[in-house]
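_Backbone structure tokens_
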Amino acid sequence: MRTPLDLDRGEQPRQEELHKMFPFWVRRTITASLAPFKEGDKVYLYYPRRKKGISTKLLTRWEGHSVILNILNDCNARIKNLENNKVVIVHIDRLAKFPEGDENKHTDLTSAWLSYAT
């Protein structure tokens, strides 16, 4: 964005050099990172919900045991919930990797939380 000061005095001294050295797509690829997921990864799905009469900080916000069926694009993935076999398309920002070695340790998030709290 150009401000009246830029129009009056020109761009900042080294701004033009930076734009020539690093075009937008280069700067974007340096700062952005693709999702670290691949097909077949086990993930948790962020699914916040509210219940009347219960504090929101006590509710679980993650639904567990889903597997990535395929990555649709840079932002979306098709996942399958292993508990009820539903297939949904979600944004990758709502996914978290399932910790390795915990597959048999906890069958749901409640037992995982209880073992962590004790």
